[in-house]
Amino acid sequence: MTDKVTQTIKKHNMLEPGDTVGVGISGGADSVALLHFLVNNKDLLGIESVTAVHVNHLIRGDEAERDADFTKEVCKNLGVPCKVVTVDVPGESEKTGESIETCARRLRYEIFESFGFRKFATAHNLNDRMETFFFNLARGASISGLLSIPYVRNSYIRPLLDVTREEIEKYLQENGLTHITDSTNSCDDYTRNKIRHNLIPQMFELNPSFDKAFLKCEESLEITNGYLKREAESLVNACRDGDTFQCEKLKQADSALRLTAISQILKEQNVKNIIRDYVYALEHIILFGGSANLCECTAHCERDVLYFGEAEEIPDFSVKIDIASKIAETPCGNFKVYNLLKKDLQNFNKQHFNNCIDCDRIKGQLKIRSRIPGESVKLHGRGITKTLKQLFNEKKIPVSKRQKIAVLADDEGIVWLEGFGVCERCAVTERTVNAIMFLRMEDKND
Known about the structure:
The chain is of the alpha+beta class. The chain folds into three domains: about 1-205, 3-Layer(aba) Sandwich (Rossmann fold); about 220-310, Up-down Bundle (Chorismate Mutase Domain, subunit A); about 320-440, Phenylalanyl-trna Synthetase, Chain B, domain 3 (Phenylalanyl-tRNA Synthetase, Chain B, domain 3). It contains 18 helices and 22 strands. The protein has helices at about 1-10, 30-40, 40-45, 60-80, 90-95, 100-115, 125-140, 145, 165-175, 190-205, 210-240, 250, 255-270, 275-290, 340-345, 350-355, 390-395, 400, and strands spanning about 20-25, 45-55, 80-85, 120, 150-155, 155, 240, 245, 290-295, 300, 305-310, 320, 325-330, 335-340, 355-360, 365-370, 375, 385, 405-410, 415, 420, 435-440. The strands form five sheets. Strands 3-2-1-4-6-5 form a six-stranded mixed β-sheet, with helices on both faces. Strands 7-8-11-10-9 form a five-stranded antiparallel β-sheet. β10 (about 300) and β11 (about 305-310) form a beta hairpin. The protein is elongated.
């Protein structure tokens, strides 16, 4: 076991010289073996310090107290500091509605992270990987789901992932170490225990070297998954357009790559439980348009533009604008008003110049208002008159976001359209003396 664990640590760059390492210890065979290995090889691995952390979940009454006492004794014999933390999992589970197992895991990892170790080692082993593989396989997991126990995740490391439970027990015997057993591990009331007691032994009956065959399978899956993740990341970045995604490349991509990219997009949206239904629902609207409810958020795809969140409802409005004002407040956002003289215009780049309005060409009252169905505008430099709908369609602006685009108008019609520029009628020329420009304010402190 020692050689295997050492190779695993080196292969996956789990430790660096000077690391402070926390170790989750339950008192079971796996965690006792891991703690003993790290303490005995501390100098060889360049570890600065090792500290054990035991969590009493208050689930198994007197047995849980026994586990805590046993853990303290093990740590005392190894000369290792031991942090014992008690947390009321049943009480918290009742408050949050989580299952006992889910709640215990969440609280346990919150406790681990609270100590601030540079690395934290957990005692998951090869048998755990097998059990998780079959558990997730039975639920229809994807490749990433079948690789659900990574060697390294952020500060967490799992040095025993290539070691079988049989090898761990042999290590304990060779080093004269004792351990305790959780009574819940002996019954088949839990799915994982059924896999552990029935399915895994049958796999070894079919192939006595099943552990080696399993590792080869996992390695192949890791290579494939790694490739898909890298390609999906490139695809997502190629489709990214601010906080939206252009869907043309997603639609053209191979299905396997598209589904992996969709999972990446969902992670970016902080969807916590990315189930297969969410991935396929998002793929459907990418291909055909529409909306999909993803529990934590809602996805919309309109004219090949994917975006997340609820559409903001903005009622029709019309706000009169005083040219001398510095700020124009409207239901669709606030705008800063710049008053410009002819000399100021000489220093403007083309983008700003196209947004400048000749004050002397404004007719009547100036106002920022909602767009009117069917209205059109001849933009400066465009040559032809187009409806706002045509302009929005050409720029692939989602229908739900169009109401927030500001329309600046006078008594004769549109003067300026946010994101598109000034109309031909009110554009600045060499004869312009006074001009104004509107820019959206990001927040009220702008």
